[in-house]
Each structure stands twice: as structure tokens, then as C-alpha cells.
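Table S2 (continued). Query chain:
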Amino acid sequence: MARGIARHRRLLDAIEMFSRKTGSGRWTVRSTPVRLCLVLSNLLEASARRRLIKLQAGNRLEAEQKVRYLIATMLARKVKLQPSEVDTVKASVGEFHPDIAGFLRKQSG
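Corresponding output:
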């Protein structure tokens, strides 16, 4: 689980870096490679996110890490999981956290 989270975080960092470098919005010969890297990083990030969502938690700690990381990422990036992705996450951590809502209430209290 830690490797999947680390991979996703590295790709988010790459997206942020390439986004800053394309700042002006104009296409130039110099900016083309950076824009291509940004597009590729976005594609790789989406793939890493899908893999992380599908990744089965091996124990209670991994289940907690996965849920916390996905929630933090969603809040920071202002993105939502699709209902099918939510179901996949619930199934992948359900063995260790059958009540995800209860887990989140406990953590926020």
C-alpha cells in the first residue's frame, strides 16, 4: 500500500511542477516538451489512482492508510470518486473496516 501511495504522490508532485512551468499558457518550442510531460503525468496519475483504488488492503493499517490518503487527496485536489470507485474502495478495505463511516467519525472526534 505504501508503494502505491508513494507512486501516486510522486505523480501529483510532477503534475504540480509541470503545471508551474507551463505558466504563460502560450505554446512555444521550449514549452512543448513540458506540456507533453504534463499530459503524460496526468495520464500516469489517473492510472496510479485507479490501481490504488483497486489495491487490496493487506491489514488494518493499510486499510486506514488507504482511506485516509484517498480522502486527503480528494480534499486537496477537489476531485470526487465515482460511485463505482467508492464501492471498489469499500470492498478492498471492508475486511478490516466494514464500517468506513464509523472509522471516519472515530478519527474526527
